[in-house]
Design a protein that fits this description.
Blueprint: H1 6-15, H2 26-40, E1 45-46, H3 58-69, H4 83-96, E2 106-109, H5 111-126, E3 136-141, H6 145-154, E4 157-162, H7 169-182, E5 184-190, H8 202-214, E6 218-223, E7 253-258, E8 271-275, H9 277-281, H10 285-291, H11 296-309, H12 314-328, H13 334-353, E9 358-359, E10 374-378, H14 384-392, E11 396-397, E12 399-400, E13 411-414, H15 423-440
Parallel strand pairs: 1-11, 3-4, 3-5, 5-6, 6-7
Antiparallel strand pairs: 2-8, 7-8, 9-10, 10-13, 12-13
Length: 441
Amino acid sequence: MKELNQEIVTQAIDELGLGDFSQATIRDIQSLSRVIEEKTGQPVIHLEMGVPGLKPSDIALNAEMKALQEGCATIYPPNGGIPRIKKAASEFVKAFVGVDIAPLGCIPTTGSMQGTFATFTTLKHAMTAKDGKEPSVLLIQPGFPVQTTQCDVIGLRHVALDIYDYRGQELIAKLEEIIKAENVCGIVYSNPNNPSWVCFNEEELRGIGALATTYDVIVLEDLAYFAMDFRRDLSHPYQEPYQATVAKYTDNYVLAISGSKAFSYAGQRIGVSCISDKLYHRVFTPLQENFGVGEFGDFFANRLMYTFSSGTTHSVQHAMAALMEAACFGKYNFIDDVREYGRRAQFMKNVLLDNGFYLVYDNDMGAPLADGFYFTVQYPGMTDLELTRRLMYYGIAVYPLDTMGSLQQGVRICTSFFADDQHDLFAHRIAAFHKDLTAKH
């Protein structure tokens, strides 16, 4: 196997002005990868981008094409979503999460990213200062960097907690400490977590729910990787086990369900924000006084979604609805498709661990992590920025953890673009990386 020309890699890094990678975004690393591929004629193994790499189901494609053929492209969709997707999402949540949310509160968004942005914006306008402190969102990290940016864009104060040293009751105690000190109006986390892939258990979710109720905090549960904890079979509708959720323990929640990862429909930008019945109808005085719409859900759907984009693309709502309907009827096992990510993760973990790497977030309350869309690793004696840069010389693109709110040193590995025909190449390059570093020491 031909090795990459190291001078060309250095030249490409310098031309893009990436330096030590401390300011590099995922897009920067992706651009660097493409330049290296072009200049060396050798493939880079892309582990940096959290983009689905599987073919979407024909169920979605056929439903969207049918909707377009029937003329939906000429009609604005309603702000709160077409009746079909609202009903399908409500039923999907009942079937796979095990909780009841009325169709009214299931609002399609242009990707779940827009749903989180709308939730943050609602919190920004609904909540008030206390004891001289503006409301803040508590981000449980590591996490999706764009959520921090979304808060910054609208001027919503945010605080963070890296869960590395806090699990179980220690996590709940620490969250309560921060809530009391920082006028926290919202708690945000992904479950499974991006990028560590840890999953909150029932004890932790029960504790978060209790805090939300006691301190009147809204929980935004980001289910971007819905049911992708492959340690349990979550693929059967209307029967346990269900997707773990805080919704069982509080009424103060919004569930963000994405079409991107579990349904491999990222390019069409579709998600559904599912607002609890009680929260949807709750009236907030600042919303009523400033916008003439006091209800949380009414403001979300008929002020924000209208202002943001006049609703979500009409045809893709039919696609997402069709997927959810088929899943509820037992005609489409969406988990079967995405289990491939787990198989890829298991292979890559074995190669990395056999060559001196170690897992950063390495267990789930004493249990092994699930193999899934992401995992985190580090190589002894390096910072995450050094490792990110050094792996590029071996044609492997990764993403450093410090850009995701983690206080730990390491990199995120994404399995989505790892192809079957790259197994030997990946093993060869990681072995060469380890051999070269071992020889130097």
